[in-house]
């Protein structure tokens, strides 16, 4: 039983773990329900250790991109260049390694390329009246074209110890991508919830005009948000390059929709001003549980798109109903 000292206003527990569970109990229940249903439908095979580890590994990567998208949506924006920037980071990283550059240097260049693209997105969105949808649609095509150009349209194969970054395990138990995601989640959470910058992000998404009149440098905040998102896409790209031992120009096709879906299912409002990083992780987990479960049951991939679309529409509908109340 939670004591009075363990609570803050509204009955929310003070303990960080209990607070997280309390605030996200709805979507956590949804994730648990999906996990249980697919377990029974597959005669408990879905609950196997190897499958659970694989789902967590995939969710970890998807979450990294979804964190960046969540911040952008909170400001009232949108980003369609997610997958293309991943592909740019992946192909350039593989290209540089195949040409003899040290893997550490190639990794940094790959992340830097995606970060620069993110900064370009942020600069245009912040300093012009061009809608974020159009800006990121343009950079999506540019980024994808660059990825195809530098790879000649084919995967760039690599070998060596670089694969350990994406395929290794901590103490032969926890995949490294899960560790990376935990660190990024903690950093992003602190940035969004414990700093002045985070308060400004929410303020801009809640009411951009009021934020401007209150002295917030909206242009700077938006530029930083898009740049940070590009940085996260770059991390996703180089980790994927390591996992696949290749740079894939087709990497991330459709990832922008997966990232947006994870954010929306996690409770991020498409109208801006509302969203939680911890909930986005659960949203990504729900989407990956659905995908993995349907794969387990040999459901054609096109029906998986239908299911994901229904989930996203349902999440948006619920968000609208909550706003009405």
From TrEMBL:
<feature type="transmembrane region" description="Helical">
    <location>
        <begin position="54"/>
        <end position="74"/>
    </location>
</feature>
<dbReference type="Pfam" id="PF02653">
    <property type="entry name" value="BPD_transp_2"/>
</dbReference>
<keyword id="KW-0812">Transmembrane</keyword>
<protein>
    <submittedName>
        <fullName>ABC transporter permease</fullName>
    </submittedName>
</protein>
<feature type="transmembrane region" description="Helical">
    <location>
        <begin position="104"/>
        <end position="126"/>
    </location>
</feature>
<keyword id="KW-0472">Membrane</keyword>
<keyword id="KW-1133">Transmembrane helix</keyword>
<keyword id="KW-1003">Cell membrane</keyword>
<dbReference type="InterPro" id="IPR001851">
    <property type="entry name" value="ABC_transp_permease"/>
</dbReference>
<feature type="transmembrane region" description="Helical">
    <location>
        <begin position="174"/>
        <end position="192"/>
    </location>
</feature>
<feature type="transmembrane region" description="Helical">
    <location>
        <begin position="302"/>
        <end position="322"/>
    </location>
</feature>
<feature type="transmembrane region" description="Helical">
    <location>
        <begin position="20"/>
        <end position="42"/>
    </location>
</feature>
<feature type="transmembrane region" description="Helical">
    <location>
        <begin position="221"/>
        <end position="239"/>
    </location>
</feature>
């Amino acid at each position: 039983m939670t004591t009075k000292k363990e609570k803050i206003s509204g009955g929310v527990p003070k303990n960080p773990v209990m607070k997280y569970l309390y605030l996200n109990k709805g979507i956590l229940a949804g994730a648990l329900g999906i996990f249980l249903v697919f377990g029974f439908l597959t005669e408990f095979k879905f609950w196997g250790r190897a499958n659970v580890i694989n789902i967590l590994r995939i969710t970890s990567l998807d979450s990294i991109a979804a964190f960046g998208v969540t911040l952008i949506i909170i400001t009232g924006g949108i980003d369609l260049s997610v997958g293309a920037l991943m592909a740019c980071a992946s192909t350039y990283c593989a290209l540089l390694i195949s040409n003899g550059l040290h893997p550490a240097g190639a990794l940094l260049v790959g992340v830097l390329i995606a970060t620069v693209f993110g900064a370009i997105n942020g600069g245009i969105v912040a300093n012009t009246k061009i809608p974020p949808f159009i800006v990121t649609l343009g950079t999506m095509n540019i980024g994808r074209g660059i990825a195809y150009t530098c790879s000649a349209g084919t995967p760039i194969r690599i070998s060596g110890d670089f694969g350990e970054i994406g395929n290794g395990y901590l103490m032969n138990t926890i995949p490294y991508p899960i560790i990376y995601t935990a660190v990024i989640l903690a950093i992003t959470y602190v940035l969004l919830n414990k700093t002045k910058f985070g308060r400004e992000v929410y303020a801009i998404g809640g009411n951009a005009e009021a934020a401007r009149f209150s002295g917030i440098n909206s242009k700077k905040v938006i530029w930083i948000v898009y740049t940070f998102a590009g940085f996260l896409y770059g991390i996703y790209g180089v980790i994927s390059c390591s996992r696949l031992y290749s740079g894939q120009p087709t990497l991330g096709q459709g990832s922008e929709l997966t990232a947006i879906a994870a954010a929306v299912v996690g409770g991020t409002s498409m109208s801006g001003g509302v969203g939680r990083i911890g909930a986005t992780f659960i949203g990504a987990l729900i989407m990956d549980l659905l995908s993995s479960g349907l794969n387990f049951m040999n459901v054609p991939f096109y029906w998986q798109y239908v299911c994901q679309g229904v989930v996203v529409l349902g999440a948006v509908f619920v968000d609208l109903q909550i706003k009405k109340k």
